[in-house]
Amino acid sequence: MGRLLEDMTRLSEEIQALRGSRRAFRKELADGNKDRQMDVFEMCVDLADTQARMAKRAKAERLAFLNNLKRNVGGQQREMRADIAGARRAWAGGGA
Questions:
Q1: Which residues contact 86 (CB under 8 A, 6 or more apart)?
Q2: Dihedrals phi, psi of 93, to nearest 5 degrees
Q3: pLDDT band at 93, cuts 50/70/90?
């Protein structure tokens, strides 16, 4: 019965060692998962900040474009009014 007892003892120790290894592996996975969750959270924060900066810059560029467009259109309207007024004077015989 000595050989069977030795085998059973060895198997029991191996089972205990494997259980300990499994516990350590699961803890390592859980810790790694927490690290990944934190990395993803930080990445999301960075993306949100970048998107907000890009949106702010795009809005400023749109506003600058619209202001420039308004100035150009206003200038063209003034030129057109001056041309029409000059044409009216010319047709009325007032000279230029």
A1: 96
A2: 85, 15
A3: confident
* DSSP string across the chain: -HHHHHHHHHHHHHHHHHHHHHHHHHHHHHHHHHHHHHHHHHHHHHHHHHHHHHHHHHHHHHHHHHHHHHHHHHHHHHHHHHHHHHHHHHHHT---
Q: Which two tokens stand for residue 9?
A: 């003892």
Q: pLDDT (tens digit, 9 = 90+) per residue, 46-87?
A: 999 999 999 999 999 999 999 999 999 999 999 999 999 999
pTM above 0.85, yes or no: no
The two tokens of residue 52 are 């907000």
End-to-end CA distance of the chain: 130
Neighbours of 86 (CB within 10 A): 13
The pair of structure tokens assigned to 2 is 């000595």
